[in-house]
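Internal QA ticket QA-208
Title: Verify multi-chain structure generation after dependency bump
Assignee: T.L.

Test input:
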Amino acid sequence: MDFSSTVASQLYTGAILPESIVILTLVVVLVGDLIVGRSRSGWLPYGTIAGLFGSVVALYFGWDNPNPVAFLGAFNSDNLSILFRGIIALSAAFTIMMSVRYVERSGTALSEFICILLTATLGAMFLSGANELVMIFVSLEMLSISSYLLTGYMKRDPRSNEAALKYLLIGAASSAIFLYGVSLLYGLSGGETILSNIAANIVDAQGGESLALAIALVFAIAGIAFKISAVPFHQWTPDVYEGSPTPVVAFLSVGSKAAGFALAIRLLVTVFDSVVTEWHLIFTALAILSMVLGNVVALAQTSMKRMLAYSSIAQAGFVMIGLVAGTDAGYSSVIFYLLIYLFMNLGAFTCVILFSLRTGTDQIAEYAGLYQKDPLLTLGLSVCLLSLGGIPPLAGFFGKIYLFWAGWQAGLYWLVLLGLITSVVSIYYYIRVVKMMVVKEPQEMSDSVRNYPAITWTAVGMRPLQVGLVFATVVTSLAGILSNPLFTIADSSVTSTPMLQAANHPKNQAVALVDQVPIEAPAIAND
Amino acid sequence: MLSLLLIIPLLGIGLLNLCPQQFSRNIAAVTILSTFSISTWLLFGLDLSNPELQFTEFLPWLEILGLNYNVGVDGLSLPLIVLNGFLTLVAIYSIGENNNRPRLYHSLILFVNSGIAGALMASNLLLFFLFYELELIPFYLLIAIWGGKKKGYASTKFLIYTAISGLFVLGAFLGMTWLSESPTFDLENLTLSNLDLDTKIILLTVLLIGFGIKIPLVPLHTWLPDAYVEANCAVTVLLGGVFAKLGTYGLIRFGLQLFPEAWQSVAPVLAIIGTVSVMYGSLAAISQRDLKRMVAYSSIGHMGYILVATAAGTELSVLGAVAQMISHSLILALLFHLVGIIERKVGTRDLDVLNGLMNPVRGMPLTSSLLILAGMASAGIPGLIGFISEFMVFQGSFSRFPIPTLLCIIASGLTAVYFVILLNRTCFGRLNNDLAYYPKVILSEKIPAIALTLTIIFFGLQPSFLTRWIEPTTTQFVATMEMQTIALEAEQPFISN
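Actual output:
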């Protein structure tokens, strides 16, 4: 008894309560489906969503945990990881809402789909808090392998197969590169695997910078940039987004990307603190390339999913501005933007799914004249796309303003300027879709819209789709205006995370800025 | 009180989307009428002895961004807000009877009304930018849906130009706030006086490019002919009447007021750009063969006066600039409203085809006589509002920029030239007997035109009713500017040592 309580107090197993709930849900879904069979599995998605929300509630209770480092240093449940895990769990819940009808229609099993998706969610959630090299690799691969499986889930569709193969090849290569970088870190630090120890030992041994550390840095970044699809490592994104099932793409664009950013922040800030100028430089380059290429190439796309793929590359570029800023405001703008991006991107994908369920096409030209036949879909997609383009008063506008504001404060004038210019470019391709749907006259209607089916929400899985769509639209339109709580959460998660504070405060540039906030904070709290 | 001007239109949008389609015009009209009455009531409640912002409201909003809901009006913004309500009413009644998507149209119009009022009353830079960008999509849709043949091209061009304008404005705002080390974007927190002159000139230039696109000034104007010509006349009333005024408003509010010394150094360049705009607009208008395009180019010319007057920065010229903003809006709205009627009834805007509309029986006598009056007002004939404002502009700026002012006076003569051409070809002459079976101009089309005409005549005869609201604020601006310039000149020796 005595021994076990000591171990328990060191393990802090409560830190992974959210993940435990997800695992439990996974097992229940898998076993339940085995027992009752496919014909009576209507409860599966709802049970899963309930499980994911339970996990979010558990995350809420883990906020401001006084002992965040659990499992003998392997897992860190600080506020930063809680927010990222929340984003991932929510994106998975949204994805399941979208996928019920989609998977049902394709004639494949829903329960296996949900299980793989929950495994990916687990991997991503563990990755957000992983504090140890092996743990990082295991959870990264858990996410990756589940993603490959999900990508190729529609196995009768050749494009899905091709996407899965491409994704697997590129992903496995980047994992190997990442693993090589990680193994270098292990060696450089003299056999440490916990991130903070590695940082301490590397600084002692090498005095900060060395060629091997630079190689390890570049290799680690290659692995991360693959996940967040930063530009030289982006080539999988358009093909995978086009080929895989749309709900999977929605998860990859939000959940997987959020996990990538969580990994980026944790790994780079802790381990590579001594080469901070180098990795800032690399990410500046990645951000520039991503913003330019993502936004410019998206102009020429004719398929909605491919367009959203390039747009998500570009959005990753915008988010990297906050990462490069490296201040408290920078990190909190990253979190805030990802929070908002969750709703707008998932809303956009919900609309794409809904449209392709009703018409069976993804071509942008086929959206022409949709306002007459389906006003709700038109409204939802318009709101989400305009929000992605950064149009006030939608959520994306505030997210971008925050990113640019943080970047400007950190002195990244050119990066912010490029962000501004490319977001003007992005307005063009987002508005092109809005134009198709809203502006086109009835006589200019596309064939798909002309033969648009009557709108019903009664078929299996349509209702969650509708709920998800309405929810995402409402949040995207209101979360900007009423974003003070979100700002406060994002900001306090950064200021209460020891890892980020340790990295930022000695540099004392950001301190003055952050300190202004608490002075005015009581006024917010009273509202 | 001011927030009502923002909220009521939004409530109106909700209401008209819930009610049956045929009521949407009436709901929109009632909504705008109520905000218009509120703003007029505020106008009479404005304390004229106080040049500062009045009816202020402050609500902390997003403190991390430095964005507060901080609004207030003064003699510069409140008349423009009243004008916004008036012209929105005109736009509601000037769309014509065959509006196929009334709900969307009126929702967008109300949204634009709310956004422009918000931009005019915002005294937080980021809040201003938010409202400034808010107009982007509604106007894009208004041009793209209800426009002419080349509406797709025109609306996209408009969108890109305006978005780029927003980019410059945001860049300047971020720079101003960060360099002045102000914790928030609130106007009163901004102290730019400790920056060195070069930085200020750079920031001011960025700001000028941003607002110059919207005004538009001559090298940046190319979106205007397309957008004005391709948009429906009702939309053009708003586009030229109030939307473009956000540019000149921003110029005075954020250029003149915040950068007094830098303004002095760029003023000569601005005067030249303004003069070029005036000359270019007039000459280009003379060569047009399209009624609407001619009026569109005349707008470029008339906006140039505002720039010249603002650049001169004397008490009278700044007052004249604001008066010219209002008079140009009223005249432009009247012109475009009438052009819209002619286009709808006659079916063409081609000056070579139009003829003899003054014919009392089969022509459009009221429309064409009002067109003559509007043309005269635009050309600066005494007794009408255009004369008053142009006269103030010329007299005020002559002492600082004599040659540009003289050139502007010449261009104002050219205005008369192209309006005579326009009137001669549309109103006079004989009707083509085979084609001239025009539909009647209905009452709801006549009323806005008559109301605009009466306003134009009223202010032309009683200009003090126009200037009394503006004068305290503009006098204050100029006094502050002169004071700061003197202070700077006094400090300069110490700085150079």
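Spot checks passed. The longest strand of chain A covers residues 69-70.
Status: verified.
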